[in-house]
Amino acid sequence: MKPKLTLYIGRTCHFCARVTDFLKTHPLEIEIKDVWENDAAKKEMLALTGGKTQVPCLRIDDTYMFESLDIIEKLKTL
Ligand SMILES: N[C@@H](CCC(=O)N[C@@H](CS)C(=O)NCC(=O)O)C(=O)O
Predict the structure, then answer these.
(1) Which atom of ligand 1 is nearest to the CA of 54?
(2) Pocket test for ligand 1, best of 33, 42, 55 (most atoms within 8 A of CB)
(3) Atom of ligand 1 at shortest distance to CA of 10?
(4) CA distance 56 to 33
(5) Fold of the CATH domain 5-76
(6) Which of these, 1, 8, 2, lies nearest to 64 by C-alpha position?
(7) Does residue 8 sit in helix, strand or coil?
């Protein structure tokens, strides 16, 4: 079964842009939520990660990644 993917980003975060730029050339079924623009997304991320706010954050089912380059390497395998 395909994992459920969610990418938490911040609108002007260049580490996040690195990941969203990658997704333009490697489209995947992934929900993108801006935690800097959307309070509900921020609350959701805080609750899920136990208080972590660093973006980009990739949620793969119930695991979380916080490093843009690691996220891109992982996305290449999905
Ligand atoms: N090494 C990380 C850096 C990510 C980073 O510094 N993100 C900043 C925004 S540009 C952030 O979320 N800062 C707030 C925090 O760490 O809670 C990466 O490559 O993704």
Answers:
(1) 12
(2) 55
(3) 9
(4) 10
(5) Glutaredoxin (3.40.30)
(6) 8
(7) strand
User: What is the structure's pLDDT at 14?
Assistant: 98
Name 13's Cβ contacts closer than 8 Å, sequence gap at least 6.
36, 55, 56
Lateral strand order in the sheet of 31-34: 31-34, 5-9, 57-60, 63-65
Strand 57-60 and strand 63-65: the pairing is antiparallel
| Encoded tokens for 8 | 């938490």
Ligand 1 atom 1: residue of nearest CA: 67
What is the predicted pLDDT for the residue at 1? 83
Q: What is the pTM of this model?
A: 0.96
- Within 6 A (CB) of ligand 1 lie 10, 13, 15, 53-56, 67-69
Question: CA–CA separation, 25 vs 53, rounded Å?
Answer: 27
The set of residues, in sequence order, having a beta carbon less than 8 Å from that of 76 and lying 6+ positions away, is 26
